[in-house]
Amino acid sequence: MQTREAFRSAQRRLAATVAVITAGQGEDAVGITATAVTSVSMDPPSLLVCVNRAASLHAVVAATGRFRVTYLRADQPEVARSFSGGRPQAERFGSAGWRLDGDGGPALDEALAACVCELEEAVDFGTHTIFVGRVAQAETGDGRPLLYCDGVFGELAA
C-alpha cells in the first residue's frame, strides 16, 4: 500500500468529534463537515481548522476573517451528512434549525457546543489551509458528542 493510502486508512481509524465549520451570512452562508478541528491554546483561547482550498468555505473565511465551529450531538448525524459534500450550500442549511444571520457564521440551534472565531493566522500546507482562530464567543448545550470513525457515525458508550 502506498504511503498516501496507508495514511488515509490509519486516520480513518481515529475516532473524532464531528463539527460543522460555517462562515458568511444569509445567501452567502457556507459550511462543511469536519473532524480536523482542535484546540490550540487556552491563552488566548484558540482553535485550528483545516480547510481544503477548493472548498467554498475557504474563500469566505479568508475574506471575512471569521468562522464558527459547531460541534454536533450524537443525534445529529443527518446534519453531518448534509454538510459532507455533494449538496448545494443553500440545501445544506435546510437540514436542521440553522440561523443564517449568526455572528461569525450560521448558528445551529441545539448544538453540543459552538465557538465563534476571529482569524488570527492562515498557513497553507498541501491541499489545505490551516486557519487559526481566536475564540471570541463560546456556547455549550446538552447531549453527547457525535463521533466519526472508520466511515461510521456513532456515540460514546454509557
From TrEMBL:
<dbReference type="Pfam" id="PF01613">
    <property type="entry name" value="Flavin_Reduct"/>
</dbReference>
<dbReference type="InterPro" id="IPR002563">
    <property type="entry name" value="Flavin_Rdtase-like_dom"/>
</dbReference>
<dbReference type="InterPro" id="IPR050268">
    <property type="entry name" value="NADH-dep_flavin_reductase"/>
</dbReference>
<keyword id="KW-0560">Oxidoreductase</keyword>
<dbReference type="GO" id="GO:0010181">
    <property type="term" value="F:FMN binding"/>
</dbReference>
<dbReference type="GO" id="GO:0042602">
    <property type="term" value="F:riboflavin reductase (NADPH) activity"/>
</dbReference>
<dbReference type="InterPro" id="IPR012349">
    <property type="entry name" value="Split_barrel_FMN-bd"/>
</dbReference>
<feature type="domain" description="Flavin reductase like">
    <location>
        <begin position="11"/>
        <end position="155"/>
    </location>
</feature>
<protein>
    <recommendedName>
        <fullName>Flavin reductase like domain-containing protein</fullName>
    </recommendedName>
</protein>
